Amino acid sequence: MDHPGKSRLLEQARLNSTVPPPTAEAQLAFLAKIQRLFAEGDFTATYKFALLISLADLAVEVGTDDGAELTLTNREIADRFVQLYWRHSTPYGTGRADTQPGVLVQNLGDQAAVLTAICEYRASTPGITVQQARTEPSYAALLSKVATVVSAQPLNYLQNFGGVTDTFLYERSGRGAIALKPGVAYCLRRFYTLVQQLSRTHWVDHIKTNRRNHTIIGDAGDLEDFLFSASRQSLAIVGAELRKLDGHRCFYCGGNLTGADVDHFVPFSLYPRDQAHNFVLAHPACNRSKSDTLGAKPHLEKWLERLVTKSDELSEIGALAGMASDGVTANRVAIWGYATAHTAGGRAWLSATSYEPVTQSYLALFYT
Known about the structure:
Pfam families: HNH_4. Residues 237-288 form the HNH nuclease domain. This protein has two domains: 6-228, no CATH class; 232-367, no CATH class. The chain has 18 helices and nine strands. It has helices at residues 6-15, 24-40, 47-62, 74-85, 113-124, 130-133, 139-152, 154-157, 184-190, 192-209, 214-217, 223-228, 232-246, 284-290, 297-309, 311-321, 327-343, 360-364, and strands at 70-73, 160-161, 164-165, 170-172, 177-180, 261-264, 279-282, 347-351, 354-357. The strands form four sheets. It has a three-stranded antiparallel sheet with strand order 1-5-4.
């Protein structure tokens, strides 16, 4: 079976041994500086959180498990900013009488320029989803605006903390790009969940403590879901379309579906970004039992085959639901997830109360 990105993955696997990963001491030093960045950095807007999330996502999706540098363009990063802030450009409302729906303010001064640019773009193209927007010729102008802001602001200031500039994450690499320094992409992949959790938690806190948002959010507790998760409407679209595509059987146990959950095959807790190619339909009981674990080998084999045979259809579902839909990226995220579990001695879910170790044979499935 010819899986997406197979030739590129084989080439990267061959090259991985050429640049050794960072030492344990270097990894601990990286974590210490990440902690200092959050503790000692100046966060006047939410851009720095978005930048950290974007760098971590891209390290997982296009990086490798070695110590090599990773070059990323400003436009690649800007595209992630648009995807992160797209939903934020719609009014948030709690439905409570003591609050008033509105677009959340994400800067201590004027509204964040990235959010303003997205709001203006959406006003000129009403009803469009972010994935549809990315296929439009007019999207290039929006991307240029956002890339300019990203370059001038968070890329310039993220590494300023404790009164000094410490370029431990990246250097500017020519015009319109940065280079993650040796070992940084590895560490972002290795500590991805921690970087995500810290960034998202601080992002939510930043919005909650901005007094101009108090009349919008009140004491709402679901702000994180609004900021970072797919909407219920999008998930309903995914569920309905997956029934048409895959039929009325649970992806895991094969039993007939009456009620069904839309499940993240690679758990959302591991990789908190909604990807159409990562969704499957499951019995609620199977979904609860699998929970935050990876699927065992029979499930992985089935999922990989589905990536090949139904990739176009899954992309269409993503377009309808307004979420990312890229089979190659989904494949690379799964490789990273299973490799991380293998290194940590993790176990994969087979069925209720049944698990098995994630062995090297799991990783071999991605290269056959």
